[in-house]
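Severity: low
Component: inverse-folding endpoint
Summary: output formatting inconsistent between runs
Steps to reproduce: submit the following structure tokens with default settings.
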């Protein structure tokens, strides 16, 4: 049984513990994805610009709602929306009782494929994530890393297996 000293808390085997595990996994996925995006865009001219996709989507929604937003407002709204949406998405890695790392990698692969294939048909432009082959592979890699991070955190927070089985 997990103890408070192990940092898992007494409710880890209950629904509250599973929710906590899922939220932590989602936060880890968001932290890795956002960290990679923000760090790379400052030092690499071919870095995927995932934040631009979000800003374009926010701008489009705002225009349809009749609201005028400047570039900085669109950026911060897109960042907040991405943190909430990606956090909820990567939290799915914490829901299964087993195979959290595999689930996280699968979630990362699907999100990476979506980031590469959907912006064009949605009218957000392909350039931010598919400018070069390096940009394309980096986009897929970042989402895989975020999914793996979510899965690792979820796995680490999983309650220990009992020493005996029937």
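Observed output (run 2 of 3):
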């Amino acid at each position: 049984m997990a103890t408070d000293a192990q940092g898992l808390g007494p409710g880890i085997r209950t629904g509250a513990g599973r929710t906590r595990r899922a939220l932590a996994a989602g936060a880890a996925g968001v932290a890795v994805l956002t960290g990679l995006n923000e760090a790379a865009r400052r030092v690499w001219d071919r870095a995927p610009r995932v934040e631009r996709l979000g800003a374009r989507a926010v701008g489009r929604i705002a225009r349809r709602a009749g609201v005028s937003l400047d570039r900085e407002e669109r950026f911060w709204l897109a960042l907040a929306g991405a943190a909430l949406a990606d956090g909820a998405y990567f939290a799915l890695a914490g829901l299964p009782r087993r195979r959290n790392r595999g689930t996280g990698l699968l979630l990362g692969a699907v999100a990476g494929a979506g980031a590469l294939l959907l912006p064009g048909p949605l009218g957000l432009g392909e350039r931010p994530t598919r400018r070069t082959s390096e940009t394309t592979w980096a986009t897929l890699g970042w989402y895989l890393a975020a999914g793996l991070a979510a899965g690792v955190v979820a796995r680490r927070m999983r309650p220990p297996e009992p020493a005996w089985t029937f």
